[in-house]
Amino acid sequence: MSAKNNNCKIVDCTIRDGGLVNNWDFSVEFVQHLYNSLNEAGVDYMEIGYKNSPKLLKGADSAGPWRFLDDDFLRKVIPNKGNTKLSALVDIGRVDENDILPRSESMLDLIRVACYIQDVDKALDLVKIFHERGYETTLNIMALSNVMENQLIEAFQLIRESVVDVVYIVDSYGSLKPNDYVYLVNKFKEHLPNKRLGAHTHNNMQLAFANTIIAAESGVELLDASVYGMGRAAGNCNTELLVAHLPNAKYNVRPVLDMIEKYMLPLREKEEWGYIMEYMVTGMLDEHPRSGMAQRDNVEMRDRVVEFYDRLTTPEIAHSK
Amino acid sequence: MSAKNNNCKIVDCTIRDGGLVNNWDFSVEFVQHLYNSLNEAGVDYMEIGYKNSPKLLKGADSAGPWRFLDDDFLRKVIPNKGNTKLSALVDIGRVDENDILPRSESMLDLIRVACYIQDVDKALDLVKIFHERGYETTLNIMALSNVMENQLIEAFQLIRESVVDVVYIVDSYGSLKPNDYVYLVNKFKEHLPNKRLGAHTHNNMQLAFANTIIAAESGVELLDASVYGMGRAAGNCNTELLVAHLPNAKYNVRPVLDMIEKYMLPLREKEEWGYIMEYMVTGMLDEHPRSGMAQRDNVEMRDRVVEFYDRLTTPEIAHSK
């Protein structure tokens, strides 16, 4: 725990990334209790959902309101905003820029744009729009473990010249080890000396918290986390662990424990995320967890770990995926 | 993942440390399947239980046979020993040295002696006896996070002059961070240049695997783990993660996945270990998990996380513990 950590900020993604688990079926009461808990705990940002457009996504009708955030609705949910800022994620091709109010009229402070490496240019175009409307911005490059260095170098050039505030190193598949994270952080620092960095980890191999604090030691400032780790598949770095770990005196773990006791433990009885063998296998193999999620959704197939491993590692089957 | 890891050996503690969860109530079939799985997976050692004497322990009658290993019994359990060596743990004051056959007549290869820092001298006396009977030996110094440096320096002198093969850095409370482990490994290397090192971690803050691989990068050679993390309270580093991570070509994760699917997932339905909030709190506070275990045993109290946290952090209550 070093003085370096003092610039770190926590971005809680429970609603946004956790929504991928329960189709954003969080009650207003749940989200309000979470906001108040995070605010009391000193957490810097709460990512309260996606700001994608329902017109641009199929299956939109069934999802909870946190998938398509609306400013009027948000004002009712959070009538008394505290120090915890609000964030939303957008995906390129799924956001209608006309939906984004100027920051002065919005509840949101931070808009983050997620993309794969080949779409960094499009993502930066969006970032520019949000930046001009007054928002803090981040660019979240996903699936970095599958990106070749030459692609990364090209992307760095675009990013260096852009207005984006923070660039995220996202371990989408939960396949990175601490050494890999340190390598990537140093690479990003070398090529993006004018940008701040963020880390978003997944817990497939129980390394989400470790990778996050090691990234912080290496100079990463924005640290993504979820309460009780709630997030797609293996989930994320746990907010309670980060709050307990970071040296900043403003952080207080007790309200996060309260949120876990009152809401997360009961929710975990109904919904599933965390260290689950199918996701350990996809993490180990550096793959998207979708094959694991499909197996977990099938009650007959669930927990057939060896069959799953064989399917993903037998060449003639794996190659046709 | 570096070439340094190539000297690493895995010591699976599922039966010994996992026995603390279920009072060593493992069937012979379970232990045989585990041995065969570990042997096929290339795991170097299986710690098959304690070699304490039932005469020196109360409550001995109710425990399974793995708490008081007997060589005749072991010969029946493992009729065809493979490459995986067998290990037993003893506690000082609880072992009768007359129970220990010469290694040439025993199924065991490795005897490990666990002690707190103030008993290192007594532990080394036992180590000497086992060493003279032909066993590989380790000294496992527990609760290092609560040891002052001057005590450690005194112990180092005794250890340097002893016959012990390997000295373990044990994070009994699951309170150490990666930086702490690196600090301790370097301290041990500096003072014990003639000894090999081991690491035994606990998963209270989801750092067991991370601390283990970071200790390995720093030069630790014997790595303790348990299948599916089974061990007291928050449990240990997961054998399957280590087997998947270490670069040695002899390791094969598939048999470990098979053990998990057939035996560990059903067992986890009945018995409890892992990332559980009470243990996260004791880890965070650098305390023995016994208060958490007591709360988990009480169905009325279980999951009252905030009350538990308050009890452990309110000065007038915490000081009387």
Automatic annotation (TrEMBL), chains A, B:
GO terms for molecular function: 2-isopropylmalate synthase activity. GO terms for biological process: L-leucine biosynthetic process. The keyword ATP-binding does not apply. Keywords: Manganese. Residues 8-261 form the Pyruvate carboxyltransferase domain. The keyword 4Fe-4S does not apply. It comes from the Bacteria. PANTHER family: 2-ISOPROPYLMALATE SYNTHASE 1, CHLOROPLASTIC-RELATED (PTHR10277:SF9), HOMOCITRATE SYNTHASE-RELATED (PTHR10277). This is 4-hydroxy 2-oxovalerate aldolase. It comes from Paenibacillus cellulosilyticus.
